């Protein structure tokens, strides 16, 4: 419990420094700043693999799956890359939500901060229950495998451009439950006018982003559970990927149109992980193979998007 407590305290310190020091004053985050912060979060995440090696080699943490230190590091890095790659789809939806509710760039970091804080809590609960299910009922891994294959197929057939947050079930229900104002009031989530407290578009965007992240977690949590059922590796790789989501959003949200084929990369990754789950008790796939498939899929998607002009892609 000491290791878990220390990791959670570390995350709290990161979040406090982020909002209370580095982003104390609201400002529009430019591409250069986003690039620097993305590099910092990625460096922190990869550096944490050294901590993983130390924990598993020293025996300071429970090792229910019997991982060697080297294998633990490979599983951690693979899990982190899966979470990071699946976050790209999340970035697209967040951009659509901010656009629909006309959230100015200066307030977007504030919304994402509280959104990611909530995402950490919800994902922690989902990881605990997911690991418990797989540990107690081994057949659940087949259910997760089929679900990931279905998700990959649905992602291949879907048209994300049709997503409209203002027509979503969440927005319609929220309007019936709580008063909503159409105008912003600085960075406030609520405003009181004529004795009535109403939610601003900032709060509405926050709620929809939060619930959307839970839906994305239904894909990402089973995906990482296909790599390992070790709770600490699943939790740490997932949370460190989430912490880098804000800077990654400001970095790639302006370039989403250029990465038109990334969606196919995510389909390949989900399909591969789903098949790995279905054949987990029949075929042992080395971690370096999983790491290679994920890395190559992302690289091919990015390179293809950059090399094929948009006019040729649409013909």
Automatic annotation (TrEMBL):
Broad class of the protein's primary localization: membrane
Bilayer topology: Multi-pass membrane protein
Subcellular location(s) of the protein: Membrane
Transmembrane segments annotated in the record for this chain: 6-22, 34-56, 76-99, 111-133, 139-156, 202-226, 232-252, 264-283, 289-308
A Pfam family that the UniProt record links to this protein: TerC
Superkingdom classification of source: Bacteria
Keyword Nucleus set for record: no
Keyword annotations: Membrane, Transmembrane, Transmembrane helix
Entry similarity comment: Belongs to the TerC family.
PANTHER family assigned to the protein according to its UniProt record, in alphabetical order: MEMBRANE BOUND PREDICTED REDOX MODULATOR (PTHR30238), THYLAKOID MEMBRANE PROTEIN TERC, CHLOROPLASTIC (PTHR30238:SF0)
The protein, known as: TerC family protein
Species whose genome carries this gene: Arenibacter arenosicollis
Lineage: Bacteria, Pseudomonadati, Bacteroidota, Flavobacteriia, Flavobacteriales
């Amino acid at each position: 419990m000491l290791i878990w407590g220390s990791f959670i305290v570390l995350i709290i310190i990161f979040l406090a420094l982020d909002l209370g020091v580095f982003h104390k004053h609201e400002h529009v985050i430019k591409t250069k700043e986003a690039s620097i912060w993305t590099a910092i979060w990625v460096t922190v995440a990869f550096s944490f693999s050294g901590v993983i090696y130390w924990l598993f080699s020293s025996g300071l943490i429970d090792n229910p799956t019997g991982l060697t230190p080297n294998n633990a590091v490979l599983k951690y890095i693979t899990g982190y890359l899966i979470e990071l790659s699946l976050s790209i789809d999340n970035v697209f939806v967040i951009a659509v939500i901010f656009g629909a509710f006309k959230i100015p760039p200066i307030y977007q970091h504030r919304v994402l901060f509280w959104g990611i804080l909530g995402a950490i809590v919800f994902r922690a609960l989902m990881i605990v229950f997911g690991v418990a299910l797989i540990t107690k009922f081994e057949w659940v891994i087949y259910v997760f495998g089929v679900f990931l294959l279905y998700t990959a197929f649905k992602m291949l057939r879907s048209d994300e451009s049709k997503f409209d947050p203002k027509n979503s079930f969440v927005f319609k229900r929220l309007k019936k439950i709580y008063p909503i104002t159409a105008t912003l009031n600085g960075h406030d989530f609520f405003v009181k006018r004529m004795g009535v407290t109403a939610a601003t578009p900032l709060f509405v965007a926050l709620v929809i982003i939060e619930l959307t992240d839970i839906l994305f977690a239904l894909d990402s949590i089973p995906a990482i559970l296909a790599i390992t059922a070790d709770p600490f590796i699943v939790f740490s790789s997932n949370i460190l990927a989430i912490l880098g989501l804000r800077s990654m959003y400001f970095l790639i949200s302006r370039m989403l149109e250029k990465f038109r084929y990334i969606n196919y990369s995510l389909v390949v990754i989900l399909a591969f992980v789903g098949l790995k789950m279905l054949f987990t008790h029949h075929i042992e796939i080395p971690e370096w193979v999983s790491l290679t498939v994920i890395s190559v899929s992302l690289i091919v998607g990015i390179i293809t998007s950059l090399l094929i002009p948009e006019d040729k892609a649409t013909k």
